[in-house]
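User: two proteins, same treatment. go.

Assistant:
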Amino acid sequence: MRLDRYLAECGYGTRGEVKRIIGKGQVEKGGRIATDPGAHVLPGEPVSVMGREAVRKGPVYLAMNKPPGYVSATEDRGHPTVVSLLDQGEYGHCGLFPAGRLDLDVTGLLLLTNDGPFAHRLTSPRKAVPKTYVADLSERLGQAGAEALPRGLTLGDGHQTAPAMVWEMGGRRVALRLTEGKYHQVKRMFAAVGNNVERLVRVGVGGLWLNLGGLRAEFGPAGEASWGLGGAALDLGDMAIGTYRDIGTAGMEAALDG
């Protein structure tokens, strides 16, 4: 395998970023400084970066309870990123990035990975992986809103939304399950029916769920049936905000099983 590809698969960045590391003389191959990104790494041959062994990493799948004020990106000039919350000693060289995004003020379930095909499947409109949110509204939803959301509605920019599932949880709290992810879509959908979102938490991605302060439990047996979850859901429990956990391939498969 080419040295630049080997280091990229170890999580040291893109092929271009890896070439710059090699150009700085920070890479050793077989005990000698390597200068050629195209040099082949032989089976069992030691490779190190700045004196630290470079080990190829398999796909990583993390679930995070995103806190407010963090950008769903790998870098940003104005705000801290969700990637900055990770233990850099353990995950700093894994090339992790958020699979999808949550708005700056939105909290809840966000997945991070270094598996590009998985991220594409999770976010592609054609795959229609459902995302579930719990929203605290400024007013009760009302019958008109409860009927309009499942039919689909027209947003201010003319976009016609796909039908969404809505579950009134009592008072001004509503759960919404949709298969799209347009810019500020949940907030814009409620605005289209004359309401405002005061707090928004994503609790589900496909069949992967957070159970934050009992939010998941509030759906109850009837809610489970109507949302089509059955026994396929993987409950991550009540993760503290700002924390994350490795969900492995089981969690990856659950996320795609909507």
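Protein 2:
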Amino acid sequence: MPANPPRDPARRWLLLLTALILAACAAPPSAPKKVALLAPFENQYREIGYNALYALRLALDDAGSDTQLLALDDGGTVKLATARVDAFNRDPAAAAIIALGPHATHANVQKASQLPMLIVGNWGNSRAAANTFYVANQELTQAAKADDLLALEQARALRDDLDGRDFRSSGSPLSENFRERYLASDLYVPQPNLLATLVYDVAGLVFAALESKLPISQAAHTGINGLIQFQDGYWQGAPVHSYTIVAGEVVKSAPSTTP
């Protein structure tokens, strides 16, 4: 015979409460997605990581997103950068990787990622994986020249042979409004470099894609640098800006072009 139901009202409420708690534990609310910034944060290229980090944080605040940002130091080698990606792949909340710098964007690191990897800038590494998306002009990335290194204050300080050097980048000159907002976003914020607005815009694209549940390949976002969307893994209509290093400073040297 089936057992008689409990007649004690207090006991019945206790059983009901227990059932509700167990049901809540069985179906927890989904955790916020995580986006990793893979870049150098130590040694000679640390300027890349910190400049990008503050641009990402500003974009997160402006978007009002609950996405979690995770800063991953690339370790200064391709091997260590690959290990960081392998570890992030295993996080069930991991959604995308934004990568900058010569080691973080290496072909082996791209191939190791099981997540969409958005590469901001031109670091001398070509697109090497189907889930890699280049936030730079395709022509520049295929030239195998790490021109965006020349925009770094550290690089110019360490070399005295760069005066008069010309280079090209999809990174745009900074408006005074963005510079002021960037510098006011936190304490001890470094001066933003040419890629700051690109990092800001691509972060906006990633947050919008996560919100709408669109794959990165189908996402589009209009930001400071205009419309960013991808075709065959490259920023469609990405601009090319020409610069010259004059007395240690980066100076715009020619009109911008787009394909």
